């Protein structure tokens, strides 16, 4: 009970800190609508002369990209890797080595507070744009999709954060981690379904992508919610997604233990 109260306090502090930057989040959300406009123009041109691409019409495809924007603000780990890196490099992490608090849970709690603020604020510009978007939004009416989406979103958030946490911990070995982050972002953009729905890829490549963690960061929960995968693939995906969460937990624990052996506690 005392542990829960401790992290609840961390969550409230993180919430207050992120509310200071609420206008930044709101502006980011507003500018995302311009990105969405580009997506509409590009895919609108792609659908000229055809009713469907990959078995989905233009409304279903646009719904997929709108859901991606919402998910990015609710679960994407946007700056956690840099924050962890800065805390290690500047010695701020030393305070956690002497206190009965898990650094992983501390950072994850901060991540949750930040995503709550950014996620709620993206709904403001989307609500304002809804009169223009509503003709392009079509959601499936199968109840199982919404039930499956809940664990998929939770596991996706854990994968997103775990990857960022992993890159942040690389600061124990490397002074600058920007190159690793940019490489991961480039791969995620393609294999995470940010450029196009992954089911449009050639069959063999799509099957390989289904075993990679990037597939489960954005595409998988979005595909469940927008009807791009069936119940069998959703059940299989949840199992693989859970396995990746466990794998990243073990990897991060190993990096933390090994990194502390190299860490010199100065500053902080």
Automatic annotation (TrEMBL):
Q: Which organism is it from?
A: Cephaloticoccus primus
Name this protein carries in UniProt: ABC transporter permease
Name the UniProt key words of this record, in alphabetical order: Membrane, Transmembrane, Transmembrane helix
What's the superkingdom here?
Bacteria
Q: Which InterPro entries match?
A: ABC-2_transporter-like
Segments passing through the bilayer: 25-46, 58-77, 108-133, 145-171, 208-227, 233-251
């Amino acid at each position: 009970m005392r542990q829960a109260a401790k992290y609840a306090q961390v969550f409230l502090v993180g919430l207050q800190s992120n509310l200071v930057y609420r206008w930044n989040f709101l502006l980011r959300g507003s500018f995302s609508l311009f990105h969405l406009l580009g997506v509409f123009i590009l895919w609108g041109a792609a659908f000229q002369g055809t009713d469907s691409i990959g078995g989905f019409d233009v409304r279903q495809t646009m719904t997929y990209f709108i859901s991606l924007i919402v998910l990015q603000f609710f679960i994407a780990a946007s700056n956690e890797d840099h924050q962890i890196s800065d805390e290690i490099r500047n010695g701020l992490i030393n305070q956690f080595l002497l206190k009965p608090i898990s650094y992983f849970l501390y950072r994850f709690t901060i991540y949750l507070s930040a995503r709550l603020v950014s996620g709620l604020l993206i709904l403001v510009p989307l609500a304002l744009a809804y009169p223009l978007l509503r003709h392009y939004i079509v959601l499936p009416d199968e109840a199982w999709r919404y039930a499956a989406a809940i664990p998929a979103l939770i596991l996706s958030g854990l994968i997103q954060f775990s990857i960022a946490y992993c890159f942040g911990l690389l600061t124990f070995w490397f002074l600058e981690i920007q190159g690793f982050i940019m490489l991961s972002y480039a791969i995620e953009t393609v294999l995470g379904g940010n450029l196009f729905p992954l089911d449009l890829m050639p069959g063999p490549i799509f099957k390989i992508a289904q075993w990679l963690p990037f597939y489960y960061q954005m595409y998988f929960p979005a595909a469940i919610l927008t009807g791009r995968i069936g119940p069998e693939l959703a059940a299989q995906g949840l199992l693989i997604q859970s396995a990746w969460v466990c794998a990243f937990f073990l990897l991060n624990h190993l990096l933390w233990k090994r990194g502390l052996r190299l860490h010199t506690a100065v500053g902080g």
